[in-house]
Design a protein that fits this description.
Largest sheet: none
Number of helices: 17
Helix content: over 70%
Mean pLDDT: 79
Low-confidence stretches: none
Strand content: under 5%
């Protein structure tokens, strides 16, 4: 799929460039396409330098939390809930701890760093699977929640905004939190409906009811605030959450007498490996999308969508963020590249860039995650995993559009 998508970007760009030259006499389009190719290659390296530091920092902190027993504590706290959502997984099974650790890595926005943990969790769940080529209910629930990407601290998004010159990188904190919550709830409800999970169980109701009450209270608080007040609150909450997470890991490590410096360095070493492995994908996608934009093909397609939306009498500002939204289910690197390119083209604090950042943080790369995780354990029959994951994707994208109009519209 990625091979065809990447090649298609270049072929469409070539056709668009030839059309502009032959039909409109714009021979300079080819110079713009070549310049975009090298500009995006340079930008990829610049993004990677900051990404390397971000991954190193958070993987180091995550290792402190792991050695301090924070992850085990989370696993025990979530055990009553998982016992009802994944009844085929025994209590205390290693899979539950790995699932929790994967959610923790996704929750602080580590993207690719969460994948190795998720693969370990999938292998543990596969050990309990009575039909090795057919996805179990527990595996499907795990993957759908994984693709819905509940993100409490989207540090990668903050990093991209910082790299592009945003004066307040955490401005999108609350929009992402609301959108990713909607995505996760939609995915959970879809799986629960198909698998006939007992959401009426008191423990499940307590968790879901508590989450619903918190979300409802937050929406009620936000509904009466102005756009300026919303932006200020989002910034304050984002920065406080980041600092609180750092202090929580460090204090937990100190309390449990973990050598925090040594544990941090041990975990941080993984940051180099993750960032190094990501660079080729980022270069490939950014260059392809840069050429596509320079050829005029992307703008032409968006203008067609914009005209159709305007004809329906709907606000058209969300259209410029659609490339990121449409690419996200298929390719994380493509969506990431489109997000960065949108920030470059429209400005990091423009409405399209803010919406693209919110979309990027509200869902995960559905088809990539399903292919990698199921492929790693040899599963061929995904059953209802794809349908439920796409429900979560659509809910996340629609929620992102709605909250961005609320916050920035």
């Amino acid at each position: 799929m990625l091979n065809g998508l990447w090649l298609g970007f270049f072929l469409v760009a070539a056709v668009a460039g030839l059309a502009r030259w032959l039909l409109a006499g714009e021979g300079e389009v080819f110079a713009a396409m070549v310049a975009a190719l090298f500009d995006m290659a340079r930008l990829s390296v610049e993004v990677m330098v900051l990404l390397f530091g971000t991954l190193t920092l958070w993987l180091g902190l995550l290792r402190i939390g792991e050695r301090a027993g924070v992850i085990d504590w989370l696993a025990r706290a979530l055990a009553p809930l998982f016992a009802r959502l994944m009844p085929e997984v025994p209590r205390g099974h290693p899979a539950l701890g790995l699932v929790t650790l994967n959610f923790a890595a996704n929750g602080i926005g580590l993207d690719n760093a969460a994948t190795p943990i998720g693969l370990k969790a999938m292998r543990e769940l596969q050990a309990l699977n009575p039909e090795p080529e057919r996805a179990s209910n527990a595996q499907i629930l795990f993957l759908v929640l994984n693709t819905s990407s509940l993100t409490l601290l989207p540090v990668s998004i903050f990093m991209y905004r910082l790299q592009q010159g945003a004066s307040d990188p955490t401005l999108v904190f609350l929009p992402i939190l609301l959108a990713t919550t909607a995505s996760t709830l939609a995915g959970l409800l879809a799986v629960a409906w198909v698998q006939r999970l007992r959401l009426g169980d008191p423990v499940v109701l307590a968790w879901l009811g508590g989450a619903a009450l918190l979300l409802g209270a937050l929406l009620w608080l936000l509904a009466g605030m102005t756009a300026v007040a919303l932006a200020t609150l989002s910034s304050l909450a984002g920065n406080l959450m980041l600092l609180a997470a750092v202090l929580a890991f460090l204090l937990a490590g100190a309390w449990r007498r973990v050598p925090v410096y040594e544990a941090f360095v041990e975990g941080a070493r993984q940051g180099f490996e993750v960032a190094r492995d990501l660079l080729p994908y980022l270069v490939a996608m950014l260059c392809a999308i840069g050429v596509l934009r320079a050829s005029g093909a992307l703008d032409f397609a968006l203008e067609g969508v914009r005209a159709a939306v305007a004809w329906l009498g709907t606000d058209t500002r969300f259209v410029d963020a659609l490339p990121t939204a449409l690419a996200k289910p298929f390719s994380g690197s493509a969506a990431r590249a489109l997000l960065i390119e949108t920030m470059q083209h429209f400005g990091v604090d423009s409405f399209p860039a803010l919406l693209a950042a919110t979309v990027q943080g509200s869902t995960e790369t559905t088809f990539y995650v399903l292919a990698v995780y199921f492929g790693a354990v040899g599963i061929r029959r995904a059953r209802h995993a794809v349908g439920c994951a796409l429900v979560a994707d659509v809910a996340g994208i629609l929620a992102a559009i709605a909250v961005c109009y609320l916050f920035f519209g």
